[in-house]
Amino acid sequence: MNLDEAKLKFINSWGTLGSQWGINRTMSQIHALLLVSSKALSAEEIMEQLGISRGNTNMNLHALMDWGLVSKEFKPGERKEFFSAGKDMWETARKITYERKKREIEPILQVVNELNKETITGDNNEEIETFKKTIEDLNKFTIKANSIVDKFIKSDENWFYKTLMSILK
Amino acid sequence: MNLDEAKLKFINSWGTLGSQWGINRTMSQIHALLLVSSKALSAEEIMEQLGISRGNTNMNLHALMDWGLVSKEFKPGERKEFFSAGKDMWETARKITYERKKREIEPILQVVNELNKETITGDNNEEIETFKKTIEDLNKFTIKANSIVDKFIKSDENWFYKTLMSILK
DNA sequence: AATATCTTTCAATTTATTTTGAAAGTTCAG
DNA sequence: CTGAACTTTCAAAATAAATTGAAAGATATT
Which residues of B touch A22 (CB under 8 A)? Predict the structure, then answer.
């Protein structure tokens, strides 16, 4: 398989997978393109290679920069901006995990915590108990999940590999 | 706060959060409703309480049963079906993790594995190297991630808590 | 300060996803 | 077998999300 075919396959698959991950297709495609490209690319090159509009390219490059997955570069003598993706997979995974934690875990923590503190009134005791128990369990669970994810976000690869993987067998 | 308000708040928040998780709003709302209800509910009751259509209720109940989060019950003498959600949070989390793994990790594994085996041809050596390195790293990473998730799916709460949490501090 | 080059914005459009509800299907009691 | 009670299906409608592209905004160059 030649390089261009392979790249295309990767970019397309990554784009589709991204949507399963709650990341939009274009964003993941741009990320994929930059991941497999040895040099930084301009917005122009990106829109040409992926066949997408200027606005779309711009918006998603910014999203990728917000996530910390892509950075801007300036080439001497060149007017335009160039973009490249961080190539360290653990770093990338940590950053994605961080963003997902913000969106997926923290809001649960917030709501559940709030409800957990409330005093619930009503006449159906069985229902109140079930409610309280559910919220309490959820609260405990979320706190644990959150702290595990935190550890991963702060970990370095070696630590994570050694500690976790060796124990997890 | 009275029980109905609290339930409503939980159901609505859970519904919104679900969408961040790639689960549709109705599906998470039904799940939330069943989680905080002490007795099993009929489709009729669910559609009334959530103000959603019959079709929508049916489809999402089936999705929840596919995920293993909800089960059908029959009450003696009653013709209709009743639904209840498993109340064990770790079990619930494991099941959700399993479904997400199928959608989010396994497809990556598949594509990356495939690309990893390919021989890439072309004239730009630097580009080929970058491509191969990216895919290789991604492959290694995904395999590790996958195996950690597998451990979680198979774990019981105590094991996970003791082993992981104590080490992760 | 005029012009050329590049980036950003955003209303309108397109595409994708979810929801509805009526009709068809199923099951069971009499 | 018939009809009432319930469940499932699915095309059409509604809603939500992503994308476009032209216009406005920057910024550097002469």
Answer: 20-22
In sequence order, the β-bridge partners of residue A59 are none
Retrieve residue B147's tokens: 């195996």
Chain C bases closer than 7 angstroms to a protein Cβ: 5-11, 17-23, 28
pLDDT per residue over B26-75, tens digit each? 999 999 999 999 999 999 999 999 999 999 999 999 999 999 999 999 99
Task: Count CB atoms within 10 A of the CB of residue A109.
Answer: 16
Task: Give the tokens for residue B114.
Answer: 């495939």
d(CA A70, CA A85): 4
Cβ contacts of B36 on chain A, cutoff 8 Å = 127, 130-131, 134-135
Q: In whole angstroms, give the CA distance from residue A93 to residue A89.
A: 6
Contact A32, A11 (CB under 8 A): yes
C-alpha to C-alpha distance for B168 and A149, rounded to whole angstroms:
10
Is B47:B53 a contact under the CB 8 Å cutoff? Answer: yes
Compute CA distances A48 → A18, A41, A164, B123, B131, whole Å. Answer: 21, 11, 43, 21, 20
Radius of gyration of chain B (CA): 22
- The reply to whether residue A120 touches residue B1, judged by beta carbons under 8 angstroms, is yes
Using CB atoms within 10 Å of the CB of residue B148, give its burial: 0 to 12 exposed, 13 to 18 middle, 19+ buried: middle
Q: What is the CA radius of gyration of chain A?
A: 22
